[in-house]
Amino acid sequence: MKYTRLTKEQFEELHQEFINFLATQSITADEWKDIKENKPHVAEQELDVFSDLIWEGVLGKIEYLENISTDQMHLFYLSHSIMKLIAIRVSQPGIDLTTKKGFDWFKQNFRTDAVEIMVASKDYSEDKNLDKFQLIEKGAVITKGELYRWFEEILP
């Protein structure tokens, strides 16, 4: 397995897609029931293959990721050829960027010495989707990129 297995909830949401996946392998509902009962290792393999297919599709479409903690923000733009990062660190004690109050403070003070902003870019490795997946594994979430684009417009 290349990524991680989908959760039970994700499988439930993708129930119809999973049925279609099994159908592409000529596995009927009765055959799937038999596989689950009598060949659990084969069922596990099918779940893993389906999970990887879903991840590949999702990862291939991602353009923006954000990883926001109490005192840092990592905003990623995942272009076709490189990963771009805007990294923000807040050194003001008591500020929590994950709260509305902390983020409001940040919006008013992002140009002060209490906020450090760095910009970087990096080439992908041999496996672009795995690079994206590793960022998600480290806590990044998929976004529409509003925050990244806002910073991109105001930074020199």
Automatic annotation (TrEMBL):
Superkingdom of origin: Bacteria
InterPro entries (alphabetical): DUF6495 (IPR045470)
UniProt protein name: DUF6495 family protein
